[in-house]
TrEMBL record:
It comes from Panacagrimonas perspica. Converts o-succinylbenzoyl-CoA (OSB-CoA) to 1,4-dihydroxy-2-naphthoyl-CoA (DHNA-CoA). The keyword Lyase applies. GO terms for molecular function: 1,4-dihydroxy-2-naphthoyl-CoA synthase activity. CDD domains: crotonase-like (cd06558). Substrate binds at T67, G68, G69, D70, Q71, F112, A113, I114, G115, G116, S144, Y241, K256. This is 1,4-dihydroxy-2-naphthoyl-CoA synthase. PROSITE patterns: ENOYL_COA_HYDRATASE (PS00166). It catalyses: 2-succinylbenzoyl-CoA + H(+) = 1,4-dihydroxy-2-naphthoyl-CoA + H2O.
Amino acid sequence: MPVSNYKDITYEVGANAVRITINRPEVFNAFRTQTVEELIDAFKRADEEKSVNAVIFGGAGDKAFCTGGDQKVHMSEDGLYGPRGLVGLPIEELQSAIRDCRKVVIARVQGFAIGGGNVFCTICDLTIASEKAQFGQVGPKVGSVDPGFGTAYLARLVGEKKAREIWFLCRRYKADEALAMGLINKVVPHDQLDAECETWAAEINALSPTAIAIAKRSFNADSENIRGLSYLGIAAVKGYYQSDESKEGVKAFNEKRKPDFKKFV
Ligand SMILES: CC(C)(COP(=O)(O)OP(=O)(O)OC[C@H]1O[C@@H](n2cnc3c(N)ncnc32)[C@H](O)[C@@H]1OP(=O)(O)O)[C@@H](O)C(=O)NCCC(=O)NCCSC(=O)CCC(=O)c1ccccc1C(=O)O
């Protein structure tokens, strides 16, 4: 797919990094099938980019990095997002593309990193956040769950107790709390976020690309079993998405009311 055909994202090659940006600020950079397809294409393209060692992955506008799956699109009869992948958008392929990309992927988080957006922060190699950023999971509140990297790998970053708290309470965490729990690498004043990301990318760009690629593969190897778990788990989520219990979560979010899950159990 040529870069000029991207509708939901932008792709730019800078001096120190490729910048991949979700460009759907009107829905807080939530993703739909098209967004995920374009992101897969972009991360594969970045993997081949010879001039830089890093990717800066962000979301357009000031409000959100990414708030996960687009809940307006998810209001479908069959409970799925569309025609591709296990749940109608190939999120499992995108998570793999980010991990398989030989560049250091830096999440640039200026606002909300919620749901699947929080999973992106978990998977990216590094995360740099503005002091205005907020992190959290909403899955069990809106009829969803990530049964792979968003849970099992999250526990490796923040520890089992904290990971369970994140999923079982669905609270929001400020940037300094995310830093303290090990979810992110650095918090900076809002207006210094881009400069900080660029500084990190420039440092990385001075290093050996092959050594970096081997180090990334080696880090990944130790948690590679989670990819298998993820594929099986997301296949199970497909069945859950088709249930009335899950559909109630999506409907309630869109109707701006509290969900009533108990009536479906
Ligand atoms: C981000 C919020 C906390 C912001 O709250 P607030 O400031 O009160 O603003 P709102 O009024 O709620 O939102 C403003 C505006 O934006 C729209 N919006 C926000 N997020 C979304 C979204 N994800 N989809 C569609 N639209 C969104 C909102 O509707 C408002 O628009 P109006 O037109 O003005 O009404 C809060 O908004 C929030 O919590 N958002 C998150 C919503 C959510 O449910 N996200 C999806 C979670 S589930 C998921 O991401 C799974 C996706 C997936 O593909 C997957 C599947 C299976 C396994 C794994 C995965 C995976 O890992 O991704």
